[in-house]
Amino acid sequence: MNFGRACNQADFDRRHLQWIKSLEEMSDGQDIRGLEIAGMIRMLTRFFDLAVRQSPSELSEPRLGILLRLMAEEDSGNTAGINPTHLSHMQNVKKNTISALISGLEEQGLLERSVDPADKRGCRLRITRAGRELVKSTAPERFEFMNQAVSALTSEEKDQLLVLLDKLRTSLVRQIHVPHEDDF
């Protein structure tokens, strides 16, 4: 289904029901809910990405993700930083994209590079004080925006959804090869 254009709820519901009907016809009696869940997760991911791009923040989602990852690394005791390749895997971003994001963040003074002591050809990335302060100062606005995005759910439903999503993540990790499970 193409949700690239704006559509109203009735149009969405009609398309979704048609999609379900098509899946059921092809399923030969098999349960289609796994495929339906995967499709819904992909769609929700796209909608969240669109919402974040429309949020009034001075940091794009990919840049914020990088800074949050670097903060988490530092807060967990990794003061040496991480290499760009590892960061690209953790952020699910291609190497050329991560390079552009890193350069932009470095130019803004939000992260810094240092020579990797284990491999002089490589570098290590760390968040700067300015980067940490920017993340902390924009966090309340980001939290408010994302909480509005999920405001149709009650507190209990949010908790239940988080439990179910983690259960699904655990199930998927057991069934597939994840190169760096600890990165997720």
Task: Give an account of the 3D structure.
This protein has 184 residues and is mainly alpha-helical. It folds into 3 domains: 8-54; 61-136, Winged helix-like DNA-binding domain superfamily/Winged helix DNA-binding domain (Arc Repressor Mutant, subunit A, Orthogonal Bundle), CATH 1.10.10; 150-184. It is 64% helix and 8% strand. A two-stranded antiparallel sheet has the order 1-2. Strand 1 and strand 2 form a beta hairpin. The longest helix is centred in the N-terminal third of the chain and has 21 residues, at 33-53. It is globular, with a radius of gyration of 20 Å. It starts with 8 loop residues before the first helix and ends in a 9-residue tail after the last helix.
Total of domains: 3
Query: In CATH, what is the homologous superfamily of the largest domain?
Result: Winged helix-like DNA-binding domain superfamily/Winged helix DNA-binding domain
Query: What general form does the structure show?
Result: globular
Helix content: 55-70%
Which features does this protein show?
globular, two-stranded antiparallel sheet, mainly alpha, 7 helices, 184 residues, disordered N terminus
